[in-house]
Protein: Two-component system, chemotaxis family, response regulator WspR
Organism: Candidatus Magnetoglobus multicellularis str. Araruama
Amino acid sequence: MKDECTMKTETQLSFDADFDLSNAQITVLLVDDQPFIGKMIGSMLKEEPDIIFHYCQDARKAIHMANHVSPTVILQDLTMPDVDGLQMVKYYRLNTFSRQTPLIVLSGQEDAKVKADAFALGANDYMVKPPDRIELIARIRYHSQAYINMLQRDAAYRRVEEQSAELEIRNQFIKKTFGRYLSDDIVESILDTPEGLELGGEKRKVTIMMTDLRGFTSIGERLPPEDVLAIINIYLKSMTDIILKYEGTIDEFIGDAILVIFGAPVFQEDDARRAIACAVEMQQSMETVNKKISRWAILKFVWGLALILERLLLEISVQKNDPSMGLLEAMST
């Protein structure tokens, strides 16, 4: 038996989420003003190697001791000289570190009214002194294991919540990074299959579209830089909306040129058909684009297209430190 109100801090049950609760030991704290009760219960538990026993004779120090030894069950005497046992039950439940700790009230009498009061204040069990050894150990194990299981469950929930928060941060990064170049459906597909973001790539058949504005370089040389920027923004905004509408992947902007892939990172059977439909609508939208830039009093732009309808075998790589998608190799098939 430990000395009165001793604290064995090296065996404390941790409430830290990083603590391995699978190896948590049963820890008993007995609070009783009668030393012979302490010796008796200590003797009962002495032959149980998996049970750590602590004894506190002074009820005024019980809460302090409970905070340090983190018991898996508290045995609280009902009749104490300084603090009433029922009042101690209330104090345990108000204390952060013992609020959920199983509490067994010990009493010298079998009184239904006292039992009811103890349970109403938060006690988990009630035993008459002196307790039977087998029954006492059984109840200690039962309540302690239930408590340890609860701590393990809560720790698991905290880990899940932390992982969910980390995943949400990652998903927001992906949405922010790829959202300007990919449709919402494709971004969601990437989030559902994160292995697609691993270093390296894969061979895949895709359809590629390359578009530009014919004569843009010579026209741009005759305009102030701010006008060139305004014109290219109008054009790229209009084209980007259409490309995303048809679930194309914008691989790269090269001045006024746009390189678009259909079939990566998500392959669909109608990639080539959508690429053609996308090209047609982009061509039709040039009338609107030319109207928007007419205030600069320049010639209408002519839109150029190179659409590879022969499917290509491409190696596509999405690097962890570079969110762009690169075409590393292309071969006609």
